[in-house]
Write a structure and sequence with these properties.
The structure is a single chain. This protein has about 600 residues and is mainly alpha-helical. It has 25 helices and no strands. About 75% of the residues lie in helices and about 0% in strands. The chain is globular. It starts with a helix and ends in a 5-residue tail after the last helix.
Length: about 600
């Protein structure tokens, strides 16, 4: 009895589903950047910053969120727990120091030093992201769209989760939110850092996988609906403190529910046919010869996609024979380049690229620039939500930060889900889903620019969904086109598109136009020279920063970004055209 219990505990601790659930929990703390819209007004008022200075802090935050070279490199040389620990330390020191400065417990720092702290604090996220994605994409090579969508979704939901926890702290001191951002994620990551890692064992699709995935998706949708209902109730009704506590306990229960999957799979395992079990290679046996292990894993994985549906219904021995035939055919396909094989002259699409090999490929830059225009414009809206809603006459900016966080989450989960259907059922390139997301965003920017009644709600819905979808689609597409071996480095390079877009759209375009319009309203006639002069000197700091009212504040910015999203659609469709053959090879069904 004790022996079998010990076996089950070992199986539980090595369960890839346990790793996935722990990664989901870590990711739900890894979206602290999305709280910048709630934190920036506190920094702005206590340190007397103007919009341009806040925009610079926003760019530092976006750089921190996206410059993951160090995280990608460390995840390749250090064990993942060590990389997670470095990230937790950065998060704690960066935001902890900002909190000390804002509350007057530490001496005031110049703007550049505040930028460095915000950068360092937010940069901790890249370690959480990279470790979670690298371990789970390796543990679930055949469901990467689903896995990436859910993990990135939880990162997008972090803003709403932390805002809800902050409501329980029940303090008039808004700076306490910065303290919570410094301490909360650090504690969670340190508690879970030894669980998140690639585990050995079977990596094929199992019968239990589809029910487990459906369960995770159900929890995701329930969580989003629950948070949405709670946020709207808190916004519209003056709830008692007890009710808020009950809502938050409900949130924690929903977050804890997915642990049911690894528990049930480990302690109440499904019985398997021994002949069927023999078909699934135990990857531990291949560890000795790494190259053989790699090719076998890919070929076995491809068999899962190639085999016709009716093979599953055959008796085990007949099924084994049919799958053996498929493997021979796949080995031939490998020789023709459909599956990764070693070649002397650089890799082909779908094989393992290093970062330097990927950087000379047009496909890689198409993904990069499409992401820059699409997600960069979405991030600009997220960063400026506070000012946008104030200019349109809304008092409570927190509700829009939470709403866009929830739509962002649904966009990520939905982007992963629908892009997986596109590649699996139709063998069509995944980037077509990115083009659809960018088209939706173009409409969202247009709605916000018009400033119609309710435009904030519709605009945040469309932009949140479109922006979120990018972060489920891009990592999965990059791993398909450029391989899993150097995925950490490739993924972290692509995320640089985010701050690059934000730097141009938010740091240069949005804040300049905002300050010009604010100056016009202040003097009733344009003082462009004065504002533009102060833009470059950075000395436009007055005790009472100028405010802009009306849709005009962001009208031109949003119309420019709407046009750029249409250009992004064109880039994504060029990528679709170029990669049709690769996806037909990777996911094309056998018709025999």
């Amino acid at each position: 009895m004790m022996g079998s219990l010990r076996e089950k505990l070992v199986s539980f601790s090595n369960s890839r589903w346990l790793v996935f659930v722990a990664a989901m929990w870590i990711q739900s703390c890894a979206g602290i950047g999305y709280l910048f819209g709630s934190i920036s007004p506190v920094i702005k008022s206590s340190l007397h910053y103007n919009q341009k200075q806040i925009a610079r802090l926003g760019v530092a935050k976006d750089l921190g969120d996206s410059v993951g070279f160090l995280a990608g490199s460390l995840c390749e040389v250090l064990p993942l727990w060590a990389a997670l620990f470095v990230g937790a330390l950065q998060n704690f020191v960066g935001y902890g120091w900002v909190w000390l400065v804002v509350t007057g417990r530490a001496p005031a720092l110049p703007l550049w030093a505040m930028c460095v702290l915000i950068f360092a604090g937010t940069n901790g996220e890249t370690y959480f992201n990279t470790a979670s994605l690298v371990s789970c994409v390796q543990n679930f090579p055949k469901s990467r769209g689903h896995v990436v969508g859910v993990l990135k979704g939880f990162a997008g939901l972090a803003g709403a989760i932390l805002t809800q926890i902050f409501a329980v702290i029940h303090t008039p001191d808004h700076a306490a939110l910065i303290f919570m951002v410094a301490v909360g994620p650090t504690m969670v990551v340190i508690a879970l850092m030894f669980i998140v890692r690639p585990v050995g064992g079977h990596k094929q699709i199992r019968p239990s996988d589809s029910s487990s995935s459906s369960f995770i998706y159900s929890v995701c949708l329930l969580l989003a609906a629950y948070l949405m209902a709670v946020m709207l109730l808190e916004d519209l009704v003056d709830l008692s403190y007890t009710v808020i506590i009950i809502f938050t306990v409900g949130l924690f229960i929903l977050l804890a529910v997915p642990i049911v999957i690894p528990v049930s799979l480990s302690f109440f395992p499904e019985t398997r046919d021994p002949a069927e079990e023999a078909l699934l290679p135990d990857l531990h046996k291949h560890e000795a010869s790494k190259s053989g292990h790699d090719i076998n894993e890919v070929i076995f994985s491809e068999v899962e996609d190639e085999k016709p549906k009716e093979v599953d219904l055959l008796p085990a021995l007949e099924r084994q024979k049919r799958i053996a035939q498929l493997q021979v055919r796949l080995a031939q396909a490998a020789a023709e380049g459909a599956v990764r094989v070693k070649r002397r002259r650089g890799p082909h699409r779908g094989e393992d690229f290093t970062l330097t090999q990927a950087l000379i490929k047009a496909d890689f830059w198409l993904i990069f620039f499409s992401l820059l225009l699409g997600s960069g414009s979405g991030l600009t809206v997220i960063d400026n939500l506070g000012q946008m809603s104030q200019s349109l006459g809304y008092d409570n900016t927190h509700v829009f930060v939470s709403l866009i966080s929830i739509w962002n989450f649904l966009g990520r989960v939905g982007g992963g889900y629908f892009s997986e259907i596109i590649v699996r059922d139709y063998a069509y390139p995944r980037p077509v889903a990115m083009a659809a997301a960018q088209f939706i965003m173009a409409f969202g920017h247009f709605f916000l620019a018009m400033g119609w009644p309710g435009a904030m709600y519709i605009g945040t819905l469309l932009i949140g969904l479109g922006y979120g979808a990018h972060w489920a689609i891009v990592p999965a597409a990059a791993s398909e086109l450029f391989g899993l071996k150097k995925f950490g480095a490739l993924y972290n390079f692509l995320t640089l598109a985010n701050p690059a877009g934000s730097l141009v759209f938010s740091g240069l375009i949005a804040s300049s136009i905002y300050d010009i319009e604010a100056e016009k309203q202040h003097h009733h006639h344009p003082h462009l020279q004065k504002v533009l002069g102060s833009t470059f000197l950075g000395s436009f700091a007055v005790d009472e920063p100028l405010k802009c009212d009306g849709a005009i504040c962001f009208f031109f910015t949003l119309m420019i970004m709407s046009g750029l999203c249409i250009i992004a659609v064109v880039l994504s469709m060029i990528l679709v055209h170029r990669t049709k053959v690769v996806y037909a090879h990777l996911y094309g069904k056998s018709h025999t």
